[in-house]
Amino acid sequence: MSLRAFHVAFIVASIVLSLVVTAWGVREFLNEGSTSALVIGIAALGSGIAMVIYGARFFRKLQELA
């Protein structure tokens, strides 16, 4: 596996993980009323959005290099 392929796989896995943590935080807040879980979920959502933006820029850069 090339370094580029690993990087792409790592970005995708990170985005999926952030979405899972976001869903967990929101569900925990709705079920238990845990404010800290909601804060963690919102932070994970922000992180996921940032990774999507980073991934889009990285894919564009890969196309320029190819």
How would you sum up this structure in a few lines?
This protein is mostly helical. It contains two helices and no strands.
Task: Kindly describe this structure.
- With 66 residues, the protein is mainly alpha-helical.
- It has two helices and no strands.
- It has helices at residues 3-32, 35-65.
- Helix 1 packs antiparallel against helix 2.
- The protein starts with a helix and ends with a helix.
- 9% of the residues are buried.
Q: How would you describe this structure in keywords?
A:
mainly alpha, elongated, 92% helix, single chain, 66 residues, 2 helices
How many E-type strands?
0
Helix vs. strand class: mainly alpha
Rounded to an integer in angstroms, the radius of gyration calculated over CA atoms is: 15 Å
Amino-to-carboxy terminus distance: 17 Å
Helix coverage percent of residues? Answer: over 70%
Please tell me what the overall shape is.
elongated
Total domains, how many? Answer: 1
Q: List low-confidence stretches.
A: none
